[in-house]
Amino acid sequence: xxxxxxxxxxxxMFDKNLQDLVRGIRNHKEDEAKxxxxxxxxxxxxxxxxxxxxxxxxxxxxxxxxxxxxxVSWAAFNIVEVMSSSKFTYKRIGYLAASQCFHESTDVIMLxxxxxxxxxxxxxxxxxxxxxxxxxxxxxxxxxxxxxxxxMTLMSHTKPYIRKKAVLIMYKVFLKxxxxxxxxxxxxxxxxxxPDPGVQSAAVNVIxxxxxxxxxxxxSLAPLFFKLMTSSTNNWVLIKIxxxxxxxxxxxxRLGKKxxxxxxxxxxxxxxxxxxxxxxxxxxxxxxxxxxPSLSLSLCLYLSLPPQLCVQKLRILIEDSDQNLKYLGLLxxxxxxxxxxxSVQSHKDLILQCLDDKDESIRLRALDLLYxxxxxxxxxxxxxxxxxxxxxxxxxxxxxxxxxxIIDICSQSNYQYITNFEWYISILVELTRLEGTRHxxxxxxxxxDVAIRVKAIRGFAVAQMATLLDNAHLLTGNMQxxxxxxxxxxxxxxxxxxxxxxxxxxxxxxAMLRPKVATLPGHIQAVYVQNAAKLFATxxxxxxxxxxxxxxxETSQLMIDRLPLxxxxxxxxxxxxxxxxxxxxxxxxxxxxxxxxxxxxxxALFAGELNPVAPKAQKKVPVPExxxxxxxxxxxxxxxxxxxxxxxxxxxxxxxxHSRPRREEVDEKELxxxxxxxxxxxxxxxxxxxxxxxxxxxxxxxPGVEHIPVVQIDLSVPLKVPGLPMSDQYVKLEExxxxxERAEKKKKExxxxxxxxxxxxxxxxxxxxxxxxxxxxxxxxxxxxxxxEKSSKHKKKKxxxxxxxxxxxxxxxxxxxxxxxxxxxxxxxxxxxxxEEEPLLTSLKNKSSTYQVVVSVIFENKCxxxxxxxxxxxxxxxxxxxxxxxxxxxxxxxxxxxxxxxGVSNEAxxxxxxxxxxxxxxxxxxxxxxxxxxxxxxxxxFKLHFTCTSYLIxxxxxxxxxxxxxxxxxxxxxxxxxxxxxxxFHHLLARxxxxxxxxxxxxxxxxxxxxxxxxxxxxVCLLVKVTVSIDAxxxxxxxxxxxxDEIKQTFSQC
Amino acid sequence: xxxxxxxxxxxxxxxxxxxxxxxxxxxxxxxxxFSHFLPETFHLVSKRDENxxxxxxxxMLIGGSDYKLIYRHYATLYFVFCxxxxxxxxxxxxxxxxxxETLDKxxxxxxxxxxxxxxxxxxxxxxxxxxxxxxxxxxxxxxITQVDAQNKMEKSEAGIAGAPARAVSAVKNMNLPxxxxxxxxxxxxxxxxxxxxxx
Lengths: 1054, 199
Hints:
The complex is a heterodimer.
Chain A: H1 2-12, H2 18-27, H3 32-48, H4 52-67, H5 76-83, H6 88-101, H7 113-120, H8 125-138, H9 141-154, H10 160-176, H11 181-191, H12 197-213, H13 222-231, H14 235-248, H15 253-269, H16 273-284, H17 293-302, H18 307-319, H19 323-339, H20 341-345, H21 348-354, H22 360-371, H23 379-392, H24 396-415, H25 421-431, H26 440-453, H27 458-470, H28 472-475, H29 486-497, H30 505-512, H31 522-544, H32 550-562, H33 564-567, H34 572-593, H35 599-604, H36 639-650, H37 656-665, H38 668-684, H39 693-699, H40 727-756, H41 762-766, H42 787-813, E1 818-819, E2 829-830, E3 835-836, E4 841-847, E5 850-860, E6 867-874, E7 880-882, E8 894-895, E9 905-914, E10 921-931, E11 937-946, E12 952-953, H43 959-967, E13 972-977, H44 985-996, E14 999-1004, E15 1007-1014, E16 1019-1025, E17 1029-1034, H45 1037-1053
Antiparallel strand pairs in A: 1-4, 2-3, 4-5, 5-9, 6-8, 6-10, 7-9, 10-11, 12-15, 13-17, 14-15, 15-16, 16-17
Helix pairs in contact in A: 2-3, 3-4, 4-5, 4-6, 5-6, 6-8, 7-9, 8-10, 9-10, 10-11, 10-12, 12-14, 13-14, 14-16, 15-16, 16-18, 16-19, 18-19, 19-22, 21-22, 22-24, 23-24, 25-26, 25-27, 25-40, 26-29, 27-29, 27-30, 29-31, 30-31, 31-32, 31-34, 32-34
Chain B: E1 2-9, E2 14-18, H1 20-26, H2 30-46, E3 55-56, E4 68-74, E5 77-83, H3 89-107, H4 112-117, H5 119-129, E6 130-131, E7 134-135, H6 140-173
């Protein structure tokens, strides 16, 4: 036997192993593919052999070939074979191959379940480890479901090596089989405090990944993580925890406050830069995530660190010579910028400096930051810098990025920061000179937008565009620049539409009809042709005034000469427009020859001015009388019908008789209901134009386009700059303009001062101008929303809300007193001299988002001495807090307002605020008192147990409402079995009703449905069966789980 | 999460890749990986200077702005990790350093040839550090202990039968081409903040 093995291995040593394969591939550089295909044939032969060692060797080679990109999926079964070898060596090869080659759609995976289970329970820790590693790569939902329990057991393995792997893989299992999360979570939580740091770190890792997906569910772990953060020294763990807190703080603002101290400690103490970075990042960024923007502000108040300090720290990073830190600093800075733009803006110099960096990653980050830093004051300066970079930039991607950023920066929030549009137009024109940009359409759309919306700029824009058209050959010069010719689209359109502003329309017309135009893309040619016609009309008009009619005729001739080129165009649009216009011009020429004046009529073709339209303008158009937008054009088929008929339609036999009468069955009420529902839906749909009755009334009598609101702005533009302007000159001009303005202002102020005769004013003179002082030279037709109407609506809504709230409060006001029978809840405390019992009367009150719980405590003096100076104190948790009078600290106790003679009992009430009711709470507390004779302070510890049940209110529910609730699908399901309960069914129900505040909705023979509601409005529905199983549904799964646990406990006690 | 780990050399030849996450996350087929992902990544990484930052925003190439490429260059090899925003950038840089140092210890002066001829071993080492895209262990000593223990087990399993095979492979390896036997961990020009307390 042994001889055979040795012989086998001697045979084997002449087989090719992985190293031989690699060497072979390297030696066959020219015909690699051929060599590998012979190797694959060899491997196929090897796989057919019985010897597992040969097979493993083959699989090992396959793994390598897979990495090189060869398909090895055909060997999946052989991989499984090798995985199931009993030898670790081969098993490892098999699992490695599987982790590299298998994926979810590999069908042999389902054959592996038992093998993996066997390996997981292997006595050899490395067998288990290898199986876990492999599984982490190819786990499927089926595997996850089948193996979840085995892996969960491994989480408490004696060896930390296995524990950490098992903990880590649980994340993959949760992803594939989410149901496993609930049962596994307690154990996962346990592992956070594992003695082995590796396991601890794995658990933190898993919870952080989970919390990224749904942070809300992990809030309850905050105290635990808090403890870890202050105790752990492992930087990996710390970084993960801080990241986790970043996700949690937006949900729980008070956390941020608690975090300041440890975080600042870390910031000041840590030597690890990576950690410093994460801290700074968290304090500001994660706190500021979008859902609660106001939160960030309030948090900033809490935070003892002013944002300046944080930004200062970042500045250190950015100024560091290490490029990585620079990058990260900029990244963090951009996050702070969103919430504290002011504090970042002061570092503009630094960011502009980063624009010069040689590293593209850093430049891109800096560009991102610039976007948020512009103001009216510095826009020109920043854009000037950027333009310099555009010139210098090599590589089109970065230059394109610059270009889009310039346009983004300038056009942001409705051109808010642009004070001089002539400057902007010239910037756009300058950008057209960029080589090889892909963003021609972007520039074009900006030109169009500005020219249409800023009326005052049109004259200037048209002049610029005319120059562009004249020099079109520069733009279309070589094929590389095809992207930029989009600009000509805008130029032609602007020149045509606003042709009255043209200095020399004839010249432009000629430029537009050049034969070279035919090389442009079709859609641009079409615009050329159409706008040439517009220009023609303008030219005719100016020429007909003259006595000499030949000039006009010459123009017509020019059109007739040039247009046939376009009629031949392959582009349909161009062809159609050109032939149409050609015929028109020919007709005009005929009329001209008869000396008929045609200019008026021709220009009538293009009459009418283009005005911007307000987004809400549509609603100003009255609905014509007799048109009901809400009525059906065609009666919709009822839903049940369509369901019935669909299968029938497959067969030809239809029953037309049936459908007719049914339609009539849909009665008026139903229709009204649907209409209402539809209106509701439309009201919620932001894209739907809403009918507003008020505006209809106003405009009903005078319908027409004239009432579309258009903001009229007339500003004269005194500047006329011939030729292509350089945008730089505007920077100077702007300075001058501002100085003038300032001077005027000063004058005014002086006047004012004179009038007021107040002596102090010197400060104003030298002060820098503020944002508001800069008035724009041109204004954008910013189509505004009607503010007054909007705001009034808001008010109404608010009032309604308030009313609703009031009503709610009234409802809640019949407090629900209930006896807290759960005696074990409040531990009766025994002390040498004193015995007290505290059956609680809890009453609950709803107060906005936090809930007040009133706890009545009965103090009974069971000893023989007089008790006085009693002080009641509770250690607050994050969730529940004892309400203390204003001005007292968070740890101060409350004085009990009475003294207790021997044998007497008295009741005191304490108010607690509770944030979340979905988890039971245990609060530790102490009662201090003085026994009169001894005059020493005595202490008594107790626990207050807030069960989830105590937040439920018995609420009656009708069976139909109950059924609807169950159908709604909003509720999550859960079930529990009660073991060893022997009592009549109605006793059982009574017990649940009594102890857990449920009411019976309906009882049918062997089962009963029950209902209750929490003070926060969670519905809890139970279906109790005589077999003592409870199926339950609730919209808050955590709450439900806890309530069920409590029910279970109640019955386990009896 | 670490979505993918790639090692390729100065010419863009892949030396190691963990592609399971590639399959599931970007639904990348093998072909797409070689025709698109690898060359693009190589192009992005290789055109960068030595003294620039080690982070790259791959954008659409790697599935959106949440993902980043974090890489380090050692002599002839690029180590590229593709991670999402839950990982700390500097932490990953440090992980790469730990990985390379571990390779150095395990192969005794690691060089590209080691990675070429012993891909399986590199995978085994990596499996002790990163598991299913999550960081398992960052302590080098711990990693080496576990790797050694497993290798020992392998040796004992091979026993007497393994001896001749080993002898033959030693003979075969004798004429390996002479190549620089070091990927220069000592003089990396990229200065990375030290995280001394990583243990």
